[in-house]
Design brief:
Distance between the termini: 11 Å
Helix content: 40-55%
Shape: globular
Strand order of the largest sheet: 1-2-3-4-5-6-7-10
CATH architecture: Alpha-Beta Barrel
Number of helices: 13
Order of helices and strands: HEHEHHHHEHEHEHEHHEEEHEH
Number of strands: 10
CATH topology: TIM Barrel
CATH class: Alpha Beta
Oligomer: single chain
CATH superfamily: Divalent-metal-dependent TIM barrel enzymes
Strand content: 5-15%
Structural class: alpha/beta
Low-confidence stretches: 1-20, 79-94
Mean pLDDT: 89
Radius of gyration: 19 Å
Largest sheet: 8 strands, parallel, barrel
Length: 327
Amino acid sequence: MYSRRDLGKLAAAALPVSNLLGQKVDGVQLGICTYSFRSMPRTGADSVDDVIRAMKECGGTSCELFSPQLEPENPITSTPNPGRQTNAAQGGPAGNPQARAAAMRARQNSPEAKKYREEVRNWRLNTPAEHFRAIRKKFNDAGIDIYAYTLNFRDDYTDPELDKCFEQAKALGAKTIASSTQLTVAQRLAGFAEKHKVLVALHGHNNTADPNEFSSPETFEKALNMSKWFRINLDIGHFTAAGFDPVSYIQEKHDKITHLHIKDRKKNNGPNEPFGEGETPIKQVLTLLKEKRYPIPAYIEYEYRGTGTPVEEVKRCLEYERNALKS
């Protein structure tokens, strides 16, 4: 694995980052989850222009678009500091994903959160498809492809709301919906995926103790058996933290995986780490994609406690990936 010191040395002789992400590297399509830019303050009614600027600064031409960046701003999760966004905004309590999730659940039970939930529901129900087509045009004009649209479905979504979400993903031109959801919710999604002919890629985490959460090969298999429109959005960091081997799993299920989330985590439910400092086999995964020519895009998802801005950290992640593929 590469240390941050090694990456600094390699970067000195590397091509400019802005020239890297728009190209396949040895046949592997690299991209960015715009969730990586979640702590950046908005400069408008939504984060569309901010995300496009960040993507262009990173040289990104392919993304998984995070739905909250299009929706009304969430007062519970928005960052009050309009300045430089670094460790606190990205890592949460000790950079621990379980602690962040617990804190988030507590905030979601507040009256403010419930009011915001209804606001978003109404926004989804009443925002026309033309709005999303206009966003798609903005991304297209900037040379950025919206490969996937993140919609983290929960059991409080009404059927009309689900229907609108699928329509809006289609208007954005997304090739798939990526969703962190539960098995019970997936059962409801199957009919909508069939109706709209849209693939839904289930995103897993590492909570193997909850049989309703996507976290293991077995839970992914249950979803694949529900619908021909279901696929896997494999997060190799969470998969490693949950105790599984992403390399062998990609070999086994490559035809059912729409795209990967690339992050570095420690095993045994360990924390997120800068690329090269965790135990996720990022280099081996990218090498597998290169050698097998699997048409599976790899999207950076920046979640560790960085020392720079989200754009700076995404560039570092990209540099790590490029050098991993070239070594």
